[in-house]
Amino acid sequence: MRPLEEGDVSGLCRAYLRNRDHLRPWDPRRSEDFFTEQGQADRVRGQLEERDAGRLVPWVLTLGHEVVGAVTLSNVVLGPFRSANLGYWVDAERVGRGLATGAVRAACQVADGQLGLHRIEAGAVLANPASQRVLVKCGFDVIGTASKYLHIDGEWRDHVLFQKILHGRSPG
């Protein structure tokens, strides 16, 4: 797991093309442009701009030079809230090998140690028990079910919402 870089465009393009069917049930509908180098270049540029503004922390998961997943802390809010949302995905060929669990744990360590966040929130589609298991293994607690929470694969989908409290320190 390493920070996203501009040079990851081609690797992300290949990874999303390779995982198009695997990710379809868990992702919003993607335009054809999303699966192109230009689409990924635009996306990476936007993510790096959000990172520079302090609202996003994007990483890629790599095996050698191959991108095999991604982890993102988005909607980073400081002040008294000190929270972010967690998203992640892993290549279909790497599922079930602990990669997602390790990446989520690493993101939580950065969120606490470097960003000083108090909590992280994550959601998993009801039909995705594997993602729910990753979150539970990483110490997230269920906080409820959100009806029609996100528009995923062409429909508004219910999600199980989780949170992890990272520490009890005062903001500062």
Detailed description of the structure:
It is a single chain. With 172 residues, the protein is α+β, with helices and mostly antiparallel strands. The protein has one domain: Aminopeptidase (3-Layer(aba) Sandwich), CATH 3.40.630. 31% of the residues lie in helices and 34% in strands. It has five helices and seven strands; from the N terminus they run βαααβββαβαββ. It has a seven-stranded mixed beta sheet, with helices on both faces. α1 (9-18) packs across α3 (37-52). The longest helix is centred in the N-terminal third of the chain and has 16 residues, at 37-52. The radius of gyration is 16 Å and the shape is globular. The chain starts with a strand and ends in a 7-residue tail after the last strand. The model has no long low-confidence stretch (mean pLDDT 96).
Entry summary:
With 172 residues, this protein is α+β, with helices and mostly antiparallel strands. It contains five helices and seven strands.
